[in-house]
Specification:
Radius of gyration: 27 Å
Strand order of the largest sheet: 1-3-2-4-5
Structural class: alpha+beta
Shape: globular
Largest sheet: 5 strands, mixed
Number of domains: 3
Helix content: 40-55%
Number of helices: 17
Strand content: 15-25%
Length: 537
């Protein structure tokens, strides 16, 4: 199929229906079909895509489309008008938002074996299209991909081809077919966990539908991320006419492209109400706890799997669509909420990270991990965050113990390079294991990331630097991060490239300092007791 994206966009913007925010012209599609009997392409904005999908499901308004097969879905992003008059018309009618995330969809009478996909790169924090995208270059490269299947260097990480059998009927949202989404979905299905839709676990409230002008209450305001890290000062909240009164354990979700802004209301009060621009999730199942659900919604996997669904929320504020977001249920003995010890563990975990002022005397994040790891049958395999227990715990303890003895021998014998190498090796093993425990993966055997280069899938193992950054990003406040970085930098000096560049001489003081840093990192993970058992045994 040969197309000219610029001509298609011009035609789209010159169409008399360009000013209609929620429908497309039958004539526009008929004209496209008449021009080429076997195939055609059309530019659609998000509302038009939703309308076509709805009409397919409820008595199709475009029955002739059923005679065609989708051959490609390509994101165009914010389509660039090719005349100032057109742009002024769109802007003056307040419709510019309907042309910010357009897609090009290609159809054919011949059923394809595969469907071509191209998804624009997005900001991982909020799902917004990257503003620095060079649209002119992007459209040029996209034309080549559509017309000849030629994939340029710029598109290698953006394009994908899926089997037609994997195409969701009449679903033109390209986010469902991105490499990231499909890979995440595949990994989720591999786990031996029960997957339940979010809507079966919670009641979903839209605060705007529960607005009470007569009721005046304290209302949450500001960034959820900033509010989450300390107890809510209720008396300092602004007074507003009420939306939905919040209950302890309610989870607030902001209307974003991802579940990027999530807040767990953890206060014993009934005078605080929700803002109007978010949904409120209220647990109605005993299978999980509010703290577990909060963790899951903030995880990368939830962000990726929710992105296609949340685009409907963002454009139309239809909170009902989040009902279908998949939630993995941990394999525990009986419902998690009814297990008092396990429920308390998740509560303590939440307090350790987000409410340190609420921890019981003598508790901290690290003793929580040690104290609950295999403490009883009720907890079983549950460890940090969900229930993943490192399969290497015993072996790593022995490895670290033996190498700490060897490190001391090397320092006494002035074998400083060997000492630094061993210190770096112990650090790397502990942090890779820790990162895997946080992600519920075994990074000694599983890849940390995958990437498609020139049509070939490459895998990368978790490096020491990756592990340090990854752990720090999850824990938010990790006091030992600088010590881990110091060891990493010192270890780099023994490599030939760094030696030739810096000619750094490793001294006894460097080794002693690195050993102390290693002990601090071990202590930060295992606590005082485990640190002694590993190092001083």
């Amino acid at each position: 199929m040969k197309i000219d994206i610029e001509e298609l966009i011009k035609k789209r913007l010159n169409c008399e229906w360009v000013l209609c925010e929620d429908s497309i012209s039958d004539e526009m599609i008929n004209d496209a079909i008449a021009k080429e009997e076997s195939e055609f392409a059309i530019v659609l904005n998000p509302n038009e895509i939703k309308r076509i999908k709805k009409n397919f499901n409820y008595g199709c308004a475009y029955p002739f489309l059923k005679k065609f097969f989708v051959t490609g879905i390509f994101e165009l992003g914010e389509i660039k008008p090719y005349s100032y008059d057109l742009y002024s018309s769109i802007h003056s009618y307040g419709l510019d938002e309907y042309f910010r995330e357009c897609s090009l969809v290609t159809f054919s009478r011949i059923k394809p074996k595969r469907i071509k996909i191209c998804a624009i790169p997005r900001n991982k924090e909020n799902g917004e299209i990257q503003k620095e995208l060079d649209y002119k270059t992007y459209y040029t490269d996209l034309e080549k991909f559509i017309n000849s299947s030629e994939v340029s260097e710029n598109l290698k990480s953006l394009t994908n081809e899926i089997l037609y059998a994997n195409y969701r009927k009449e679903e033109f949202n390209v986010k469902y077919y991105s490499k990231e989404y499909l890979s995440c979905l595949k990994d989720l299905k591999k786990r031996k966990e029960k997957i339940i839709p979010l809507g079966e676990l919670v009641e979903i409230f839209d605060p705007k539908k529960i607005y009470e002008k007569s009721k005046v209450s304290r209302q949450i305001e500001g960034s959820f991320e900033k509010l989450q890290h300390h107890s809510l000062k209720v008396n300092e909240l602004p007074i507003r006419h009420g939306y939905l009164p919040l209950k302890k354990g309610d989870i607030l979700v902001h209307a974003d492209k991802y579940f990027g802004d999530v807040y767990l209301f953890n206060e014993d009060t009934n005078i605080v109400v929700s803002p109007g621009d978010n949904a409120v999730l209220r647990l109605n199942s005993t299978l999980i706890t509010a703290e577990y659900l909060f963790w899951y919604l903030k995880s990368d996997i939830a962000k990726i799997l929710s992105a296609p669904i949340l685009s409907d929320v963002y454009n139309g504020k239809d909170w009902g669509v989040i009902w279908s977001i998949p939630v993995p249920i941990p394999n525990t003995d009986g419902p998690m909420l009814l297990n008092k010890e396990l429920s308390q563990w998740y509560r303590d975990w939440f307090n350790a990270i987000y409410r340190p002022d609420l921890l019981r005397k003598g508790q901290n994040y690290y003793t929580l991990i040690q104290g609950y790891d295999g403490a009883s049958d009720a907890v079983g395999e549950n460890t940090l965050f969900v229930y993943f227990k490192s399969p290497h715990a015993q072996s790593l303890s022995k490895y670290a113990h033996e190498n700490m003895k060897e490190i001391d021998v090397d320092i006494r014998n002035e074998s400083y390079l060997s000492a630094i190498a061993l210190i770096g090796s112990v650090l790397e093993s502990i942090l890779i294991d820790w990162a895997g425990e946080l992600d519920r993966k075994d990074y000694f055997s599983e890849p940390y990331r995958r990437s498609n280069v020139d049509g070939k899938m490459y895998e990368w193992k978790l490096s020491l630097n990756d592990a340090i950054c990854h752990i720090a990003s999850i824990l938010k406040t990790w006091d030992a991060k600088e010590r881990a970085d110091a060891i990493r930098e010192m270890r780099n000096y023994i490599h030939v490239g760094a030696y030739l560049k810096y000619n750094k001489k490793i001294t006894q003081e460097d080794c002693i300092s690195a050993r102390e840093n290693l002990m601090a990192v071990i202590k930060s993970r295992y606590g005082d007791f485990s640190c002694r058992s590993i190092i001083e045994e």
